[in-house]
Amino acid sequence: MDRRSFVKQSCAMCLAVGAGLVAASSLSSCATLPVYKTAVANNKVSVPTALFAQSDFQVIQAKDLFYNIGLRKEKDGTYTALLLRCTHADNQLISTGNGFKCNLHGSTFDKEGQVTQGPAERSLKKYRTEIIADQIIIHLS
Q1: With 50 as the cut, is the pLDDT of residue 67 above it?
Q2: Which residues pair with 128 in a beta bridge?
Q3: How many angstroms separate the first and last alpha carbons of the chain?
Q4: Angle at 110 (CA atoms; ends 88, 140), nearest 5 degrees
Q5: Residue 109 three-state SS
C-alpha cells in the first residue's frame, strides 16, 4: 500500500469511528429523558403533576417555543422551571442528570441553572411556577 492510500484509509476510518461515537453519545443522552409536549396558552404552560410520579425531572416541549423547558420537582413540593437555552450561544441544552450541558461550546450549568463551566457567564432563565389543582403552571412572562 502506498503512503497516499494509507493516509486516505486511515482518515476515513478515524472519521467513521468519531461519527459513531458522537452519534452513540447523543442517542444515549436523549433516549432516557421524558419529554412532555404541550401548548402555550395566555403566555403560560400547563403540566399535570401526575407526570412526576416516576421522575422528579421532565423536559417540557411547548409548541411555538424554540427551546425546551426543564421542569424539576423540589423536595419541598415546589417546582423549578428553567429555559434550556445556553446563555452563551443560544443553543439547546441537554440534561446530564446533574445539570445541563451545551454541546456547542461546552458550557455547563447545575440543576439550579448556575454556570459551572464557561464560556457562558450568565445563569439560565428561570420561570415562575404555581400549582393549581393538579396542574403545574409555568409563567413565561
Answers
A1: yes
A2: 139
A3: 65
A4: 65
A5: strand
Q: What is the pTM of this model?
A: 0.73
- Averaging pLDDT over each range in 11-15, 28-32, 76-80, which range is the top one? 76-80
Q: So what's the pLDDT on residue 33?
A: 65
Strand 126-132's sheet: what is its strand order?
A: 35-38, 57-62, 69-73, 79-83, 126-132, 135-139, 44-48, 40-41
Residue 13, classed as helix, strand or coil, is helix
Number of helices followed by number of strands (H, E) in the chain:
1, 12
Residue 24 has a pLDDT of 41
**Listed residue (97, 96, 92, 98) closest to 124, CA to CA:** 92
Q: Is the dihedral of CA 94, 96, 99, 105 positive or negative?
A: negative
**Cβ-contact 120, 127 below 8 angstroms:** no
